[in-house]
């Protein structure tokens, strides 16, 4: 062997050793250093989780009658991953499916499109879940049709039918409560991504609105998971892990189905009454609350929808109607999302403001037909001159001009257009004390906070809008260039950041930019009724397991005190009683055998409807009773409903009749919803079969 | 035959150790690999075949038969005389060239995974002439490179050119299949042998340059098939072709990585049993070791290969003649680079080529060639002792 070959041999040997070391190093990296991530990757390749959904907990009323329960339905589902592979993208299959189910093809098509696949504005009825789970066309199909699909599976590739548990809202006592209950639906991609901090399995259904979403974590339970090991052909080779489903817990609410149903009926009747009187009545809401605890006993909104429609499968029309202006936006819960000027119901706040400002409540005040405020003339309601009135009487007949005078005087005292730095702002402070402009904090999602049009709000409003008003001629449309609007724009541009005399005067009678929800008004009047405590309204009372164990009690919560002395509140209560005795609500409540108190409100609304007609007034009534020992507050609002008394006042009376067991002007013994005179604190036994309590004969 | 008998008789009188004149280290290492390989082939196929209603021992039985034939071939190669070896080599070479030509003829050769490399035989068997050509090239080149005149201790340019021709004809035919993995392995063995022969170093440098330029040119000029470009691309970016070559490579890496330090236990790998890696009993056999035996088991297999190669270096250095030394270098380079190519591919260090793992993979032709190579090493070892 020569030197060269010896050297070559050594070079080859070193080369080979280094290659082997490289392999060993790489092997170490894969199997030791990076092993965890490869183990995870392998697991996701080999294992399949089969999720058994948990039975959702019931939602029951305070006596245990189910508001939401589960039943078995037959789901007909479309597998997008299968039909998308067909040459016509599944059109033929979906067409024959829609013929079989007697549905419109466009509805079936839309129902199987992911929302993200569609242009914004054309998404009504789309599938909010994922492509990779079977998409239900309906979950409440006729079993005979389902059988046809299963038997002719070769004609329906990608379509399957199977029994599923579906959410059902049984409408016991004909209750609807759709806005309060909400509905359930498939997970969205953002739910799956854990954006709300919870983890889900793809096939789960969760609460999407109302109590269903508010208490979802309790109602949902946890699904069962079977983990299978599969091979490349997806054949199961092993079952490695089994977790049984845990059923969801039940939610006991303070709602009473009979009272809720009666409220809904009274609401519909109020709307019908308004329409018969020639008003548009495009929406309405009613709230019944326990003034001692803040518990909500009924909560209704009009127009409403069928909460079962979601599980049955929405058509494109049904889905778009939910948000259609022409249909009155049924999806909007007016009780906690509708914002309206409170009008005369707000005089309760003004009375507290006047008392705090030192006005003598026992003195007499002028109620002329109009008051000159600056350059403008502010008229009394119907321009009526009521002469000289006591404050109580002024409340009862709902005199406006008294408040114009007081509010204007106070505005001048606070510096007028050059406000003092230490302005008293009695009216704004009283409204703040009533928590106007903040949410009530009810245990429902998407509550509106309303708006308190005080100095701060005025400034920020001007900041956002001065550009428009200072260039009104260029920015506004021709139709908006009337002399009045041009003058208004000029004023808004110049001193729109300040509370003007007109703003102060309007504020005192609940007009102008201050808006509240019907629920907020109920909270305010509950506080007046109970002597000054502001409660957080609650619907949920307790979370109870399927075995009957209470795992969470939802206690009432005090969140404030009215900014008024005991004497002021007492005076206010007497005035509100006078409204019903001799004032604006006397007609609506005539002959009612149990003393009640309340206040009407008829709010002017500016602007026009879509058809060009001027908007009608908002009708309000806030009442409580029994007057001597207040327990319940009932608020009704009919948007574009006309007068407070005739539309809402009569509606509130009807609710009180059911609530207190009154027929006309007689008390029917034992007919009251709460025979002991107050809602019971005892939690009911929960069963899907619980029946509605029969009315006493 | 008389020569063989003589040698055996000679062996019987001289062989006192337990290995009948065989190199103990080499024998134990190869024996262990054959044993582990048998288990792995069985583990790779048993559950899947049973689950699909086929004979779970189908591959095991055939693998054992291959090993038995391989042992007989190794034994034959071990005891054969040098001179007979030289006499048979041209015949084997010629048969190899004929076979390599035949596989290219449509109707005779069959295509598997894009390479025209197999001749189907009756009874479901098929042979791969390229495997046998490796032996012919190594022995043939060793003959030519060791027959230099006595005043010189290195081959002349003429010897080198002749030797290269011996290699070039079969390699050219393999290129036409095309089986780039085998071409790569033979080319490295050729360069190693020329280097070890003591030939002028410019040959070595030149050949490496030619190989690099050739590889580069082939890619650029499109001589390399589409599927090979794909394999190369998926090597650079494993996600580029998620259901083809890239899929296999990613699955292979996941399977090995999921084995961890101790593995899932023999016969117990869900990745293997789910058959997520294709070609598990042949080219991707190392994934089975990786998953089921873990780093300890698969690292041990690597050490067995290193042992065989290191032992072959020792035999090469101790060899009294240039022929034995060159055969050793040829065989060890072949084993080493085929091992590196195969495991490197499994671990994502090398592009995907269809070469089996020596002694471990299922497959007759490869097993026979490996065992003949093993026999050659033993033959040379025995000659040193003799």
From TrEMBL, chain A:
* An annotated GO cellular component: plasma membrane
Q: Which UniProt keywords apply?
A: Cell inner membrane, Cell membrane, Cell shape, Cell wall biogenesis/degradation, Hydrolase, Membrane, Peptidoglycan synthesis, Protease, Transmembrane, Transmembrane helix
Q: Where is the Penicillin-binding protein transpeptidase domain?
A: 285-655
The membrane topology term of the UniProt record is:
Single-pass membrane protein
> Which InterPro entries does this one have?
Beta-lactam/transpept, Beta-lactam/transpept-like, PBP_dimer, PBP_dimer_sf, PCN-bd_Tpept, Penicillin-binding_protein_2
Q: Which GO terms describe its molecular function?
A: penicillin binding; peptidoglycan L,D-transpeptidase activity; serine-type D-Ala-D-Ala carboxypeptidase activity
| Name of the protein this chain belongs to | Unannotated protein
Q: Which organism is it from?
A: freshwater metagenome
UniProtKB/TrEMBL annotation, chain B:
Swiss-Prot/TrEMBL keywords: Cell shape, Membrane, Transmembrane, Transmembrane helix
Tell me the InterPro entries matching this sequence: Cell_cycle_FtsW-rel_CS, FtsW/RodA, RodA/MrdB
Q: What are the record's GO terms for cellular component? A: cell division site; plasma membrane
An example GO biological process term is: cell division
Q: What's a Pfam family this protein contains?
A: FTSW_RODA_SPOVE
Please state what the protein is called.
Answer: Unannotated protein
One MF annotation (Gene Ontology) recorded for this entry: lipid-linked peptidoglycan transporter activity
TM region positions: 21-43, 63-80, 87-109, 182-199, 204-224, 293-310, 322-340, 360-381
Q: How does it sit in the membrane?
A: Multi-pass membrane protein
Question: What compartments host this protein?
Answer: Membrane
Its taxonomic placement starts with:
unclassified sequences, metagenomes, ecological metagenomes
